[in-house]
Predict the 3D structure of the following.
Amino acid sequence: MTLLSVKDLRVTFDTEAGRVEAVRGVSFSLGRERLGIVGESGSGKTMTGRSVLRLIRPPGRIEAAEMVFDGTDLMRASEREMRALRGQRIAMVMQDPKYSLNPVMKIGAQLTEGLRRRDGLSAKVAREKAIEALEAVQIRGPERVMEAYPHELSGGMGQRVMIAMMLIPNPDLLIADEPTSALDVTVQAEVLSILDGLVRDRGMGLIFISHDLRLVGRFCDRVLVMYKGRVVEELEAKNLMQAEHPYTRGLLNCLPRIGGERAPLPGLDRAAEWAE
Amino acid sequence: MTADPDTPAPSAGFLSGLPRLLRLIGGTALTLAITILGLLLVTFVIGRVVPIDPVLAIVGERATTEQYEATRVALGLDEPMWKQFAIYVGNAVQGDLGQSLRTKREVADDIIRYFPATLELATLATLFGVLVGVPAGVLAATRPGTWVDQIVRIVGLMGYSMPVFWLGLLALLVFYGILGWVGGPGRLDAGFSMMFELDVPPRTGMILIDTALAGEWAMFRNAISHIILPSAVLGYTSMAYISRMTRSFMMNELGQEYITTARVKGMPEWRVVWVHALKNVMVPLITVIALSYAYLLEGSVLTETIFAWPGLGSYITDALFAGDMPAVLGGTVVVGVVFVTVNMVSDLLYRLVDPRAR
Ligand SMILES: Nc1ncnc2c1ncn2[C@@H]1O[C@H](COP(=O)(O)OP(=O)(O)OP(=O)(O)O)[C@@H](O)[C@H]1O
Ligand SMILES: [Mg+2]
């Protein structure tokens, strides 16, 4: 069953320095499953994710032949309808918590904002829910974290706060942009298993954006490989090792194999025609 | 350090707010004291350097040598310099800034009479500047390039480029002379002025507050009708500055990632702008507002002259023209202290608003 369907998505920035095509015709569909998006820096992963929420700032423009979420045409929805989807049915874990949390608001206020302002919960109930959400992402001493400001948190803590914040409304679709890059292995495993549980038990759809092809290969059901704003290959995660596209193979070859023979690290080959 | 790795560094936020605040205020007071001492040193040196003999200025050209000497000793001018400075500082700290040659009153008493008029005017003008300037800047920043932005820009530019005396005269001509909507020059109508001196206990020296405390509402309304024009004229300049800075700070904040996060959470646009962004805008804006307030507190001579406003600016200027050095230097010390105090308070507020600066 399709939760999100995207056809020929394009994101274009008309800047003084000329036109930048950040996303150039991306198509995919997502059920209640885990879809990974990998690609090098600047390949358009974040812009693809944000397009779904229609949160690309001017001068950026979004175009798509189709972008439908659970029966709602996202390209035609009013701003009001989009707001009702955001932070309620579709949430997005933002890439860099250092810049993505409001620096002058306490973590507690940022976590409870949605519950209080849109769901109209009392301060006490909202606070309890926020503390639960923090505990769910393995944060010890959540009461103290509630009172902290973002600059007082480590990178990994910030990421977990961000994940907690976006999971609070129980979204149907979660776009997670590099959600675990600053976490150590054990906490990463915990967080991934929480996300996994939400997909399996609640039927949440997950778009998991990462640099880490190996992680995506292990964790996701399907993988989109992006290069310069295009999807160069889409494959089942279990078939990752059989990837055909030379760019994907290049990414795979960068991964060290335990017990494998040591060859000099190959440079990533980029043929111009892949971008066509 | 605690063993719990999830506990954020206990540097700030968790310490009960009071000791931190006290420490902050203590540091601020110390800086204030040092700054004022430096200021006194400067005015002291100026007082000795200017070619006006303070003794002669008091006793007059025809005094005898004995009279001259007696006054010189009375003023402490026979003492060594360092001792003179110590006496000067000691007196200043006790509120003794010497005697005005022109008014023959204590400079401190004079300033107590003149400063509240400036304070009242500057506060009202700043209030106007903030209440109009901040929303105007925010509106302009959220609609760049539209007619709203253009209007805010043009009105702001006019505030920058129009001479205050011209604006003041024009406003007086239109709203007092032609339309008669407001009171004329001075702080009260002549009739009320007399009543004010006799009937209203001078608690703060600010007419709006004193009349309100005394329940003299007719007088209060009259005072409003007099202060509204000069404070609007002064406030206009302040508004121009504040709206421009607000716009640029707001544009910067709206480009930050946390703004997208707030939108991802489905927050309505007004909340994104007026809560999420504005809280961050307030951090640099506090300094801007304080600077403009401190500037107005020095007393705007031109505005005070046009509106016959008996404020600090005209007091110091008149003293300067009369060669009344004690009054000039005393006034300078007060202006300096006010300026430094406002900046210290703004620094304190800044730290309270920005958790990263604590
Ligand atoms: N405001 C903008 N103006 C012009 N170009 C932009 C703007 N914002 C993003 N881009 C371009 O869009 C492209 C895609 O950016 P995006 O953030 O989606 O990359 P990414 O795959 O998420 O990279 P990373 O792994 O570093 O996060 C980049 O090449 C960038 O230059
Ligand atoms: Mg990105």
Remarks:
- The mean pLDDT of chain A is 87.
